[in-house]
Amino acid sequence: MAQVRVLIVDDQAPFRRAAAAVVESTDPFVVVGTAESGESCLVAARTLQPDLVLMDVGLPGIDGMEATRRLATLARRPVVVLVSTHDEDEFGDGARSCGAVAYIKKSAFGPDRLAAAWALGSSGSTARSSTPPPGPSTSSR
Predict the structure, then answer these.
(1) What mean pLDDT comes out for the span 93-113?
(2) CB 134, CB 102: distance < 8 Å
(3) Region Disordered: start and end of each range (predicted)?
(4) CA torsion angle for 125, 48, 96, 93 (degrees, to 10)?
(5) Residue 14, phi then psi, degrees to nearest 5
(6) Does the residue 78 lie in any domain?
(7) Is 10 a domain residue?
(8) CB neighbours of 64 closer than 8 A, spacing ≥ 6?
(9) How far is CA 114 from the centre of its chain?
(10) Which of 92, 107, 121, 138 is the most exposed place for a label (fewest CB within 10 A)?
């Protein structure tokens, strides 16, 4: 299976390190770079051409939702997953309309959510803002 190149964008070094550890321990994902702001994310995305961007919503300067909108203009548009410590509904329609394929609360971020978000985004789904399930459903309907 081909590697999935991941750019991690967050202004907090502890989350960048934690997310990098999850990415590096989850096949087929590999960290190709990190960025601390929306502006540095846009530069890094042009240079590194990631397949997937983990984007903090609350970045200084250009916030994560605006950076996501701008990433959509790149010739090689990455799949973007928004991450935050806040609940998704605190961001209103912005989280749904910026072009991200999923929203994951930082406290829930892990290998299963990473893989599910990538599957959602790489499938060409038009879903823009649902937190992906943690894995296969065990409930009966």
Answers:
(1) 88
(2) no
(3) 121-141
(4) -170
(5) -60, -40
(6) yes
(7) yes
(8) 9, 38, 55, 56, 57, 58, 82, 84
(9) 8
(10) 138
CA distances from 49 to 31, 70, 86, 113, 128 (A): 12, 14, 28, 22, 21
DSSP-derived pairing of the beta strands 102-105 and 52-56? unpaired
Tokens of 68: 């996501």
Domain containing residue 22: CATH number: 3.40.50.2300
- pLDDT above 70: percentage of residues in the chain: 82
Structure tokens at 77: 């548009």
Q: What is the mean pLDDT of residues 28-42?
A: 98
Instruction: Return the structure tokens found at 7.
Output: 């750019």
pTM of the full structure: 0.85
pLDDT tens, position by position, 74-92: 999 999 999 999 877 776 5
Q: What does the DSSP assignment read for 34-85?
A: EESSHHHHHHHHHHH--SEEEEESS-SSS-HHHHHHHHTTSSSPPEEEEEES
